[in-house]
Amino acid sequence: MIVNSINFWLFFAAVVVPYFLCFRGQRGQNVWLLLASYVFYGWADWRILPLLVGVTAVFYGLGLAIARNNESNPRRASQLTTLGVFLGLGILFYFKYFAFFVQELTALFASLGVPCGERTLHIVMPIGISFFTFKLMGYVIEVHRQTAAPTRDAVEFALFIAFFPTILSGPIDRAATFLPQLQQRRLYNERDVSEGLKRVLWGLFLKTCIADVIAPWTTAVFSNYAHHNATTILVASPLYLIQLYTDFCGFSEMAIGVARILGLRVAENFQRPFFAKNVAEYWRRWHMSLTTWITDYVFMPLNVAFRDWGLWGLYAATLLNLIAIGVWHGANWTYFWFGVYHGLLLCIVTGLDKRRKRFEKAHHLKDNELYAWSRRLLTFLCFTFGSVLFQAASMGDFLGTLSRLGQGFGPLYTEEFSSLVIYALPATCLMFLREWVAEYRRDIHFLHSPNMLIRLVTIALLISFIIYAGQLEGNSFIYFQF
Amino acid sequence: MERTDIFDKLNEIFVDVLDLDEVELTDATTADDIEEWDSLSHVQLVVAIEKAFGVKFTALEIMKWKNVGELVDSIAHKLYS
User: Which site among B39, B44, B57, B64 would you substitute to test the A interface, given the most A Cβ atoms closer than 10 Å to its Cβ?
Assistant: First the structure.
C-alpha cells in the first residue's frame, strides 16, 4: 500500500475522518494513529510487526533510564546510550548486512583455498528498517545530550517511531520536534489540509510525470548497458539523477503532505539540490533528514574526536561520514565506493574553500550569475557521475557502463524515448521553473498565490498533467528498498 | 574575565576563523544566524576557542551547546572553576 495508490487513499480516508471527528483529546488521536500505523506496517510486512513493537518497547525503556541517570549517574547514562546505539546498529547489521558479510567472507576463504561450503542466508529485510532504527538511535542520543525530553507516554513514543506516512521511507524525524506535537490535540485546520494537499499534488506530479516516465528508458539503458553506445549512456546518466530526485522528493512531498493533513509537521527532505553551487551545499539540500542525522550523530562526534589532527582530522571525519551515508543505502560495494567518491569530493571542496573565497573576492565573482551557474553545472555533473555508481547493481556493472564511454558515439537509443520528450521534458521544465522561482523570485507564487485564479489554474494544470501524462499504476519508490 | 570580555574575544575568533568582515555575537546567536558557521567550520571554531582561552571541552559539552550563550557559560565555568 503506497502513497501513490488508490488503496492508500481509501485507507487514509478511513483514518482521517474518525481522527478529527471522534476523539476529544490527543491521547485518543494518538492511539488511533498508532493503530493505523501498525495496520499500515503490517500490511506491508506483518512478519516484522513483532520486531517493530519489541524494539520500540526496549528503546522506550532505555530513554527513560538514560534520562533518570543523566544527572545522578552520567557514566551509567553514557553506557545505556552506547547500549542503545549498539542495539540499533546490531539490528540493522543483522537484517541488512549480515548475509552480505557471510557471502563476502565465504568468497574470500574460497579464493584463499579454504573450503567452507556454499552458504546462502535468506534473511528477510524488514521494510523501512533503515528509517526506524535511525529514529530509535537518534532518540536515545538526543535524550542523553538533553536536546530532547524523554516521553513517559508509551503510545506517544510508539507513534513517533511507527508514524505511517514516514515509516517506510522517511523523512527521518527527530524526537525534539515531533514528540511535542503529539502532546496536544490536533484540530481540523483548513490551512493544514490545503497545504498538505498541495504538497501531495506536487509530489504526485514529480513521481508520476517525471520519475515514472523516465524510469522505463533509463532501466532499459542501464540494465543492458553492454548494448548501448556513449551517446546513450551520456544522456541516460543525468536523466537517472533527475529520476532519482523526482522519485524520492516526490515521495517525501507526499509523506510530508499526508502528515500535514493530520496536523503534524515532519522534517523536510529536499531543498532544490540542483541549485547547489558545490557538493557540500548539495548534501545540505539532498535527503536532508538523513544527512543532518548523520552529521549530528556521526560526523560531529568524529570531527570533535579528531579535532587535534587539524585539517586531516576534518578530512577523516568527512570521509567516514560520507561512507556511512553510502553504506546506509545497503550492503553493496557500489554504495561503499559511492560514499568514498563523495567523501573525497567533499574533502577537495573543504580543502579549497579558503582559496576559492579569496579568488571570488579578488575577481568580484560573488554576485556573478554566469559563475554561479557554471558552479551549479559542475556540481550537477559530479552528482551525475555518482548516481551512475549508485544505480549499478555491482562494481562490475558500473565499470562495464563506464567502459561503454570508450566505445564511441553513435545514434541515441530511442525506443520509448518519445514519451520522455513529450511528457517528462515539459514536466521537468515546470519543476525547474518552480524551483527557480523559489530560489530567485520569492515574490512570485503559483500554488500559494494570493490570487485565487492563479492558484486554481496551477492546480488544474498539475491535475490535468498528471491525468494526461502521469504513470498512474502506483509504481513503487526507489527508496523503499533501503 | 567578565562575560563581555569573553564575547569580545569570541568576536575576534569568529571573524578570523570564518573569514567574516565583522560579527556581533549575542547570547542568542546560533549557527543559523551566520552563513559561514556550518558543521565543517564548527570544530575549527572550537579548536581556536580552546587555544585562545586555554581550556579543553568534552565531546558531550560541545554537542550540547544550543547557542553562543551556552558556549560562553561553558568557557566561564572552565575559567572560574
Answer: B39
